[in-house]
Specification:
globular, 13 helices, Rossmann fold, homodimer, about 10% strand, alpha/beta
């Protein structure tokens, strides 16, 4: 299976008995990165561009997982093949996600049109699962129509997810109070849709709050389409068909206005920029510093003895770096 | 006061009526960074190297703050001037720390030999307060004998603090159970002392656990001094004089064995390395990418249209970067 060519062939044919195993294997390769992961990423890229990717973000206890499952079911009713990625940015392990997976697996068991994958976060360093984009690209190449990305746990993954998906749904529930106020600005910037879940608990006040936030923000941003505010009860599925309609409408109107294309361009510019940064560190600076280990030791030792100011040591290192580049 | 020369003079003389205000101002400058912060950092560096810096790390609810206050009081009894820095890595704001500060201020009020400062973390990016090292350097230059650094809140600050202090005390309390197991490896590497606080709750089992962890680890590491395990009741101050003795003994024995010097050298090597990384990004790559904005846009747009593979775009950017360097 480690032959990428062969893997690609299996990936492209859902009717093949080895298809799901091929998808799982490709996801693992993509997650692991390294040479094989890189090779795979390059191979799947030209095959993609068809899947609609939607991020679901919101506080713990907002019923996000249940909602994502209902949205998946609704897309299934419409004949779409749906992949779900659960990302837990707060944990280097995926215990929680794996547990949730099992419950989910049962819910969608026997349906070949659903694929569930959980990814662990980067742990202490924070942030999203490092290879989330690559995992999405695998699903995209493997002819999944919809990829739902759900952030589990808490933290910055909440807004970061917007950098890897086409549309971001922000899930809110009544009673969060001040917490929303502090999240407000970040959430507003990334939200393409607001979902007020647990609508049976009474979301009038929340609706008013979100709507007035949105009115304030559209007066500031001109590039954004209207952001719809939907009400759902994830447990019963109420409101979910309308939510899926709204997702589709949002996609169409953003494509028509060019907002869609502008976001994709912006996302790729950001990705190129952070890849350059990684390359510069991993391939250039880190080897340079390793080669200059003796100098580093001497400088560090002199600073520790207070016989050299750190700024002068930096000057020396910068000069060494510049001379090396020529 | 923005005249650095003048500020330095005020900083060096604790009997000067403007001294505490000068320290506070220098800390603010150091925290803000920028040109003034950099200038200050350079100016205070040769004046420092005398203060003993001790980091206190451990889980929420371990009674760390109370312990740090008691340790400060004990150092005061020994005629030392003590600065306390409370770092909250989990928050971009310092609300919690500021609240804690007020209680502390009262406890040490009227004592010119104590200075308390709280620093916020980097927020979403995680990690320690970005200018913690610079703040310590200010206290050092301002003739404080001891700087106690306490991480408030949760997260990675727990072990990161070890990279900026001379000695790290890991504070544990009974009943944390499995949590310690997962923290184990990271904590063991940074601990110069273990403090079992709330010893009145019964710490026999915890003591046995920590001791056996330590035995296992000393068989792996040869460079470490014996790591003492102390028992305290921070609320009453019991065990705190012995803890302060142990800190002193640890300092003396690490100085004698050379472990102290090796750590300082290692810390400075790490700092030079991360400063080079910052410099390369901020002064070199970021301006380069800004200058190549049009190219970035074209590449990103071509990738978004799937007419260019990201890897080829990266190749172009790397070539542009290399050509620019020559």
């Amino acid at each position: 299976m480690d032959n990428i060519e062969q893997l690609l062939v299996s990936l492209r044919d859902p009717s093949n008995p080895g298809y799901r195993r091929a998808v799982a294997h490709a996801l693992t390769l993509a997650e692991q990165g390294g040479a094989a992961g890189e090779q795979l990423a390059q191979a799947v890229f030209p095959l993609g561009g068809h899947a609609l990717t939607i991020g679901f973000t919101g506080a713990l206890g907002s019923g996000k997982s249940t909602l994502v499952d209902q949205v998946a079911a609704e897309f299934r009713c419409r004949g779409k093949r749906v992949a779900i990625i659960a990302v837990d940015p707060s944990s280097p392990f995926s215990h929680g996600a794996i547990l949730g997976d099992r419950i989910r697996m049962q819910r969608h068991s026997g349906d070949d049109g659903v694929f569930i994958r959980s990814m662990a976060g980067r742990g202490a360093a924070g942030g999203l699962a490092p290879r989330l984009l690559e995992a999405i690209a695998v699903f995209d190449a493997a002819a999944w129509d919809v990829v739902l990305v759900e952030t589990v746990g808490v933290g910055q993954g909440d807004t970061l997810v917007a950098s890897v998906v086409d549309l971001t749904a922000v899930v809110l529930v009544p009673g969060l109070g001040d917490e929303i106020q502090t999240m407000k600005s970040g959430l507003l910037e990334v939200a393409d849709l607001f979902v007020l879940n647990k609508a049976d608990l009474g979301v009038e006040r929340l609706h008013t709050e979100v709507t007035s936030m949105l009115e304030l923000s559209t007066s500031l941003h001109t590039d954004s389409a209207v952001v719809p505010v939907l009400r759902t009860i994830a447990l019963t599925g109420e409101g979910v068909p309308l939510l899926v309609e709204a997702i589709d409408t949002q996609r169409v109107s953003q494509l028509a206005s060019g907002q869609w294309q502008r976001r994709q361009q912006r996302q790729w510019r950001q990705r190129l920029s952070s890849r350059m940064r990684e390359w510069l560190w991993e391939q250039q600076l880190a080897p340079f510093l390793a080669a200059e280990e003796e100098t580093m030791d001497q400088l560090a030792s002199a600073i520790a003895r207070r016989s050299l100011a750190p700024e002068l040591a930096m000057e020396q290192l910068r000069n060494l770096w510049r001379r090396r580049e020529v």
